[in-house]
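Model: You mentioned two targets. I'll fold them one after the other.
Researcher: Yes, keep them separate.
Model: Target one:
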Amino acid sequence: MKVRKALPEDLNSIFEIYETAREYMRRTGNPTQWGTNKPSEELLVDDIRKGELYVGEAEDGNIHFVFAFILGEDPTYSYIENGKWLSDAPYGTIHRIASDGVVSGVVKTAVDFCKKTITNLRIDTHENNKTMQHVVEKLGFVKCGIIYIDDGTPRIAYQLL
């Protein structure tokens, strides 16, 4: 599986992956994290424009997962409650990771890719996203506290050093 920057021509595959992920979330008790339309097309197009959206592509050219990888301070991480960050050193953040469910180990693949750029990583997830909580904890991320995203809803925040 090759990780590469997403291109505008990848958008249809990316939309399908996010729809598959939203359906999985609904089936597993997490219907509100992304609802029926998140992440928005506008956000994904902006991520591509900034060079911050990545895809996992198989040898046959099929895209199986997508994630945003953003270097630098994330405004939603400036305030954390019920805990603290392990380090305030420069970090990268993994956001909006989703899979089509065809291949396994996509979070590990994304994390390994990001660690080649910076070893201080942050990620967050909804309290009802038990799958993501299990996976990131298995990969060594430490639960640091609660952050709030732009719409004011809480997320469990993790860090990996």
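Model: Target two:
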Amino acid sequence: MAIILGLVRGEIQLVDPQVGWKEEFLKTQQQIHEATGLALNRIEHIGSTSINGIKAKPMIDIALGVDDIHHVPVDLLKSLKSIQFYRLQVVLENEVVLAKFLDNGKLDTKTHIIHLVEYKGQKWNDLLSFRDQLNASDLLAQEYEALKLSYLLTGNKDMNDYTLYKEDFVKRTVSRNNTTDS
């Protein structure tokens, strides 16, 4: 059975959870590991496709941990490019973003996103904490799904606005975990 995977540039779509998302991540994790030599524990499934039972944008989000985000080895980026991950012109603090596209030659339908961040740094910890908390609480996961669906009702199709729309929820969730760790 084929899984739904891929989102056209400028489109925001949420689809029902797909059984194959986790397997697709594991396959991609292995490809990244073989191409880069990075340890498997530095390649984590994040984003809504990693959260059990909720609708998600049909793209596999991956956190990839490096030692120093300000000095990413050129060889690492070349190795990722060799498996069709291309650096995007997205400017985020302490993060480099790469994407893989459907093999249609147009580079307009993203299927996978890599968030290159410092391994065990603040962003890394926050990304994994958010995923883990939503997987540990059906109520929290359902609340997040409802928030994402409510954005679609606005009719807006801007990915930056979509991300900002969810930001308070994400920050609240992550800070809840940070205060319990103290």
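Researcher: Noted. Anything on target two?
Model: Residues 74 and 80 are 10 Å apart (CA to CA).
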